[in-house]
Design a protein that fits this description.
The chain starts with a helix and ends with a helix. The longest helix is centred in the last third of the chain and has 29 residues, at 172-200. It is built from 16 helices and no strands. The protein is 74% helix and 0% strand. It folds into two domains: 2-200, no CATH class; 206-272, DNA polymerase, domain 1. By secondary structure, it is mostly helical.
């Protein structure tokens, strides 16, 4: 009887909100990606034996991984699925550890990483990049979580680590430290580089500028990044483009106490970047 009532409630909720909205809300939950991880992990052992997966995965980790490196050819189907699953798990744990909700950008980034883990990305060449971004955050005394999008998308250059170790022909005692240091250096400059890219294309997107300005405002005013404004509020600001401090009071979701703290600076920043 209880199950029947819950089912009726679900049907009523779907009719009220619409099937698409229910699916979107469900897909944004961590459990969806966890299920994908479990399915990929299980399929790996269905298609190949543990020994074949182990040997294939070692081949993947030891490949130069220059794009486009076909991991299916290098390690086999089972090892490739295992590689995709481990990369997904790494990023899921990172997102969960940093206390993020599963937003649209994070959800899309993790699936993008999973897709590219079929060629070029593995856990060995990804970790040095992440470590470099972490060191940048520590040195700049900024919260590591404020760079989550940079972290997730940084795997686009992770092949650099594998190439320096296994693709140059250098002996391992030389290639391993050079590869790891190269990855850390690349990760270290990525946050700073992403903050300055708006100057290259003159900032076509105010939302991007607000996103990159948020950790600076947080640092200067000794706030946490999420206390400045959320991603949704940044979107609202980019749409409304407030020209006066009083306009901030009409921005849905903007914390009113922040108007006195950095309201004048924010309005001036938006004004400068919308000319």
């Amino acid at each position: 009887m209880e199950i029947e009532l819950k089912f009726k409630d679900l049907i009523r909720y779907i009719r009220t909100k619409g099937t698409l909205m229910v699916l979107v809300k469900y897909m944004k939950n961590h459990i969806t990606l966890l299920i994908v991880f479990i399915v990929l992990f299980a399929l790996a052992f269905i298609f190949d034996s543990p020994e074949e997966i182990f040997n294939g995965y070692i081949n993947i980790l030891q490949s130069p991984s220059v794009l486009i490196s076909d991991y299916l050819r290098i390690g086999g189907l089972g090892a490739t699925l295992f590689n995709v699953a481990t990369i997904m798990l790494l990023n899921l744990v990172l997102v969960k550890k940093l206390g993020f909700r599963m937003t649209g950008p994070i959800f899309a980034d993790i699936f993008t990483i999973a897709g590219f883990s079929f060629f070029g990305k593995n856990i060995f060449n990804t970790l040095p990049i992440y470590l470099g971004i972490y060191l940048f955050a520590r040195i700049q005394k900024l919260p590591f979580r404020s760079f989550i999008i940079v972290v997730l998308l940084s795997t686009g250059i992770s092949f650099l680590v594998s190439f320096m170790i296994f693709g140059t022909g250098w002996p391992l005692y030389l290639g391993i430290p050079i590869g790891i240091i190269s990855g850390m250096l690349a990760g270290f400059v990525l946050p700073a580089f992403s903050a300055h890219t708006i100057r290259f294309h003159r900032g076509y997107n105010l939302y991007n500028k607000l996103f990159l300005e948020r950790p600076k405002i947080a640092k200067f005013n000794k706030l946490k990044a999420f206390e400045v404004y959320s991603d949704q509020v940044a979107k609202n600001l980019s749409k409304m483009k407030p020209k006066k401090i009083e306009d901030l009071d009409r921005i849905f979701g903007f914390d009113k106490k922040n108007i006195e703290i950095f309201g004048a600076y924010l309005v001036n920043f938006i004004s400068k970047n919308t000319k």
